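Sat 14:20. Reprocessing the chain from the morning session after the first attempt stalled halfway. Input below, unchanged.
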Amino acid sequence: MEKESLKYQRLREEMLRQQIEARGITDPRVLAAMRKVPRHVFVSEALRDQSYGDFPLPIGEQQTISQPYIVAEMTQALELTEEDRVLEIGTGSGYQAAILAEIAYRVYTIERIRSLYLQARKLFDEMRLFNIVTRYGDGTKGWEEESPFDAIIVTAGAPGLPSALLSQLSVGGRLVVPVGNQHAQDLIRITKDKRGVHQTNLGGCRFVKLVGEQGWKEF
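Finished this time. Tokens:
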């Protein structure tokens, strides 16, 4: 990776202070990851000066890189430790996986769009994020052979909770998923213990739709 300019470091610090900390993100591990990972390398060169703005950006294939605060909020909701194995559904640009990889022991991430999958894998290698394992395929079915996972994050809006993901969550695990229609969702945090499954609504959000066998159908 090329040496980062002071401009991007300054923009990232402003993002952290004005968008992340100001809205109540307090987990020091999340803050440290957001401070370290260079968000601008996950978007096209034409959009790099906007990459630390308080909004999502297009990454091609009708997909987006999420607003920085949403990335931080979802990551904090997972309550990660350095020993956790995390499954991410929807690699996209790779930014969310890179944030997770700074905190957790290993990140497994699945992307259904081949061009995005290849681009993200290349970036992970360039950034020497060797604790990220990638797969090209339908993320709604999870990654059964690597389960159970301590945490699962879904970075696209689902019509309901994919049952495969819930079954692959360990006892004591946390799952964060946007659930709703194709235009607006609620961010749902699910915890799983010996007594069952518990849900918390973290508030409204808007993601691109989750396409797959246990998501929205692609026509």
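Residues 32 and 111 are 26 Å apart (CA to CA).
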